[in-house]
Write a structure and sequence with these properties.
Rossmann fold, 23 helices, globular, P-loop_NTPase, seven-stranded mixed β-sheet, 625 residues, 47% helix, alpha/beta, two-stranded parallel sheet
């Protein structure tokens, strides 16, 4: 399958004679030529794992480089530091053959030849040759409409983002929501899926959280028993889950599966009587079960995660002639965009700006959280030759880290947002150096010292305080609910725009100051987003706007050359002028639109997506021979 076929890299190392030798600080193998096969190369192999492997297999050439760098710096006691630097780059005696169907920017940069894969076996080719199934051929989307009401007299001010998440959680876990979706899924499985693949077809339910998986498992079993259907389900999630509906009650995967051990679950699910597997962050990658035919999705998916999750269905079977996806959450256009990136083979986009590494370092240095003397002393202990290491080194390194931990804790107490911004910059430096040092031969030992110091400091920093947590079970209730099918058919990958794999552009993760709104206002905003359909006059007005937009030449050109997110920037500017031109046709709607920024955002995204899809289809048809 294409998950195991994709970009690979093969260098041609010069010949080396085996050279026996000993390094006083690290075990190693004799210098030989090594071919390293890396499966699922988009994962951690692009980081420290591959680097450590290079250190073990690098041989005499790696030791020679480290010794030369130590002598040049005039500090032979830190040869282990320079060996750590030298092992990050390409090694002349090693060839990497990396396989993946879903490469990231880092994957192509590290394992590719100048960012290009050595060989491609694309998703398109694999589907055409019937090596994998086309998982987007039968795709049904549902939309949930609902209205919440505030039943409590109090109307407290709440932090908008946190409270909105709590209301979304309230809705997703609401028994009526889970009950209605369970009925749709079980009835679909009973009357459609179970007859597929010679009557052996299985299904996976992808949930948004571990607690949702628990609630769905309970509702599935209740509904199946009530109906008397011959379906048995299993659930997969990690750890222990608490449900606030039943205090002091906890749930585990093993307990909910009747004692089936975690490692036994794949083999148990393969048995004929088990037909449905409900998952929360498990079995969404790498799970190989050819009898999987249908996937029910109740979780937001995007990018590589969407491709990997839905690809659980792509395994072939002699009796399998199609697959089916029923999606309660995601926009088909976004799923199409995610798959288009890999359909004909991913390509490199914008490179990571190497200068960002020094920018972030300068900001970290200037913060005062750590001192350069502490970094230097930590490195001297950490990279000391084995002959100079002692049992007290661990205590000494922790003491050096504790100074920075104390300063960070003081900042966290006085300005938590600023502390989290600093933590984000620490992680940005760690990730940037971990990646760039494998493609750029840095000679700056201060970078390696800081990388090593921060890698250990990150583990000791106090966690972010959760702040206000909201539970709205007593304040809010569900007033209206409707589940409606909105689209059905194939998601074509011959249309649309394939985004290149751009390098990371973001540095740090600053926390925006929380906006406070009244609970009633927040409920109104959410109801405006999910409360139902427009009346006929409103719908006609929007249809006219969409038609006019599709005739706009600047939007036509923007749709040809831009991804959906960039198209939205152009569309937003044109949309306002189109509203003004037609204000007399629906003054009430025009007034609402111009006076409510949140409505402008929703309408822009909604109409922009419709217009972009229409223009993309038209552009694709025009370009056909």
């Amino acid at each position: 399958p294409t998950e195991r076929g994709g970009p690979s890299r093969a260098s041609s190392p010069p010949g080396h004679k085996p050279v026996p030798g000993q390094n006083g600080s690290q075990s190693h193998l004799p210098t030989r030529k090594y071919a390293v096969i890396v499966d699922e190369a988009h994962s951690s192999q692009s980081g420290e794992t591959a680097t450590e492997l290079k250190g073990v297999l690098g041989g005499a050439e790696l030791r020679r480089k480290a010794q030369a760098m130590a002598e040049e710096e005039g500090d032979v006691e830190l040869e282990r530091l320079f060996r750590s630097m030298a092992k990050r780059g390409q090694q002349p005696n090693m060839s990497f053959f990396a396989f993946t169907a879903t490469p990231k920017h880092k994957t192509l940069a590290i394992f590719g030849r100048n960012g290009e894969p050595f060989h491609r076996y694309t998703m398109r080719q694999a589907i055409e040759e019937h090596f994998i199934e086309d998982v987007l051929k039968n795709y049904v989307s549902y939309k949930t409409y609902y209205k919440l009401i505030k039943k409590a007299e109090d109307d407290p001010n709440v932090e908008r983002k946190k409270a909105a998440k709590a209301l979304a959680r309230f809705m997703r876990l609401h028994p009526h929501n889970i009950g209605q979706k369970t009925e749709v899924m079980v009835e679909h499985f009973q009357h459609f899926t179970r007859h597929k693949i010679g009557g052996h077809a299985k299904a996976m339910v992808v949930t948004g959280s571990r607690l949702e998986a628990v609630r769905y498992k309970q509702e599935f079993d209740r509904y199946i028993q009530e109906k008397g259907y011959p379906i048995k389900s299993l659930v997969a999630f990690s750890g222990t889950v608490e449900d606030d509906r039943i205090p002091e009650k906890t749930y585990t995967e093993v307990g909910m599966n009747g004692g089936i051990k975690e490692r036994e679950l794949p083999d148990t699910f393969a048995k004929p009587e088990y037909r449905v597997l409900l998952v929360a962050e498990k079995y969404q990658t790498g799970f190989d079960q050819p009898l999987l035919h249908t996937m029910y999705v109740d979780k937001r998916l995007a990018g590589i995660q969407a491709v990997q999750t839905l690809s659980r269905l792509n395994r072939i079977h002699p009796l399998k002639d199609d697959t089916f996806v029923l999606d309660f959450v995601n926009d088909p256009a976004e799923i199409q965009e995610a798959f288009r990136q890999y359909y004909d083979g991913a390509v490199m986009g914008e490179q990571v700006d190497a200068g960002k590494l020094y920018e972030v370092k300068a900001e970290l240095d200037a913060s005062g959280i750590y001192l350069q003397t502490e970094v230097d002393e930590f490195s001297r202990v950490f990279f000391a030759p084995k002959r100079r290491q002692s049992p007290g080194d661990h205590r000494a390194m922790n003491a050096l880290l504790d100074h920075a931990v104390a300063r960070f804790a003081r900042l966290q107490s006085s300005n938590e947002d600023e502390a989290e911004l600093w933590r984000g910059k620490l992680l940005a430096f760690h990730n940037l150096y971990g990646f760039l040092s494998q493609v750029i031969p840095y000679q700056d030992s201060d970078l390696e010292k800081l990388f090593t110091y921060l890698r250990h400091l990150a583990l000791k920093l106090p966690r972010r305080k959760n702040g206000t947590g909201y539970q709205f079970d007593a304040e809010v209730e569900l007033d209206y609910y409707r589940l409606q099918k909105i689209s059905e058919g194939s998601i074509s990958l011959d249309e649309g725009y394939a985004k290149p794999l751009d390098g990371s552009r973001e540095v740090g993760s600053g926390m925006a100051h929380e906006e406070h709104v009244s609970l009633s206002r927040l409920i109104d905003l959410i109801n405006a987003r999910f409360g139902g359909e427009l009346n006929e006059a409103d719908q006609l007005f929007f249809d006219q706007i969409a038609e006019a937009a599709s005739q706009n030449e600047s939007l036509q050109k923007a749709a040809e050359v831009n991804s959906l997110d960039k198209f939205h920037l152009v569309f937003r500017q044109v949309l306002e002028s189109l509203f003004i031109e037609r204000m007399d046709l629906n003054e009430e709607l025009f007034t609402d639109y111009m006076g409510k920024p949140e409505m402008q955002e929703l309408v822009s995204k909604w109409l922009g997506g419709k217009v972009y899809e229409k223009l993309s289809v038209r552009s694709g048809a025009d370009s056909m021979p």
